[in-house]
Design goal:
Blueprint (H helix, E strand, L loop, with lengths): L1 H53 L32 H30 L18 H26 L18 H28 L3 H10 L6 H6 L1 H4 L1
Helix pairs in contact: 2-4
Length: 237
C-alpha cells in the first residue's frame, strides 16, 4: 500500500507540471495570436495612412472624411458639409455633378464658339430670339423628348449605377470608358461649371460676352480689367 501511495504521489508530482505547462503554452499561444492580430491591425492602419498620404487632396495636408475613400472618379476628399455620408445619396450626387458638368461644357463651348464666329447679339439674349418655331410648339416637342430621355437615364442609373443613354449603360460609342478618362471628364466638368459662373458674372457687370471682354482687356490691359469693371458696376446695373 505504501509503495502504491508513493507511486501515486510521484505520478501526481510529475503530471502537475505538465498540466501547468499546457496552461502556460495555451496562454502563450493565445498571446501570440493576439500579438499577430494586433500586428496585422497596425500594418493595416499603416497601409491606410500611407495610401491617404499618397492620395491627392483638394488642399495640401487635408484629411478626407471617412465616406470619401477615393473610389469615385474625381474624389479629392472635399465634402465640408458632409452631404455624401449616405452612400446612395453620394452616388446620386456624383451622377448629378457629372450631368450638370456636361451641360456646362456644352454651354461654355457654345458661348465661346458664338463669340469667335461673330454671331450677332450677346449669348445671354439668344433665348429671346425667334428660331422659326413657335414657342408652344417647341415646348410640346421638348417636354416629351427630354422627359423620355431623363426617365430612361434615371432607370438605367438605378439598375447599373452608371450614366448612359436610353438602353445603353454606360454610353460609350467611342470606346473611351476608362478610370483615367472618368477623372478627366469630371475635372473638365468642374472647370466648365466655374467658367459658366464666370460668364454669368461677366454678362451681368459688362453686358458683353467672354470673347469681347478678353479682346477689350488685351487691347487696353490697364484701362479694362477687374478693377475698372468693378468700378463701372453702378453704370450698368
Amino acid at each position: 500500500m505504501a509503495a502504491v501511495a508513493a507511486r501515486t504521489v510521484a505520478f501526481a508530482r510529475v503530471a502537475a507540471p505538465q498540466v501547468g505547462s499546457a496552461r502556460v503554452q495555451k496562454s502563450f499561444m493565445g498571446s501570440a495570436k493576439a500579438f499577430k492580430v494586433a500586428r496585422v491591425s497596425c500594418n493595416a492602419r499603416r497601409t491606410t495612412m500611407i495610401q491617404a498620404a499618397d492620395r491627392p487632396m483638394w488642399l495640401l495636408g487635408a484629411e478626407p472624411p471617412a465616406h470619401l475613400d477615393g473610389t469615385i472618379a474625381g474624389d479629392y476628399g472635399f465634402d465640408p458639409l458632409g452631404l455624401g455620408t449616405d452612400p446612395d445619396r453620394l452616388a446620386w450626387y456624383a451622377e448629378a455633378e457629372l450631368q450638370n458638368g456636361r451641360w456646362a461644357m456644352m454651354a461654355v463651348a457654345g458661348i465661346v464658339g458664338s463669340g469667335l464666329l461673330g454671331v450677332e447679339g450677346p449669348w445671354y439674349s439668344a433665348g429671346a430670339k425667334e428660331f422659326g418655331l413657335p414657342f408652344l410648339a417647341l415646348l410640346a416637342i421638348q417636354f416629351p423628348v427630354m422627359g423620355f430621355l431623363e426617365t430612361k437615364r434615371l432607370e438605367g442609373f438605378k439598375a447599373t449605377g452608371s450614366n448612359g443613354l436610353i438602353n445603353s449603360f454606360p454610353f460609350d460609342p467611342a470606346g473611351m470608358d476608362s478610370a483615367s478618362m472618368k477623372v478627366k471628364e469630371v475635372k473638365n466638368a468642374r472647370l466648365a461649371m466655374l467658367a459658366f459662373s464666370g460668364f454669368l458674372v461677366q454678362a451681368l457687370v459688362t453686358r458683353e460676352g467672354p470673347v469681347e471682354n478678353l479682346m477689350a482687356h488685351m487691347a487696353d490691359p490697364f484701362g479694362v480689367n477687374i478693377t475698372t469693371t468693378i468700378g463701372n458696376i453702378p453704370n450698368v446695373l
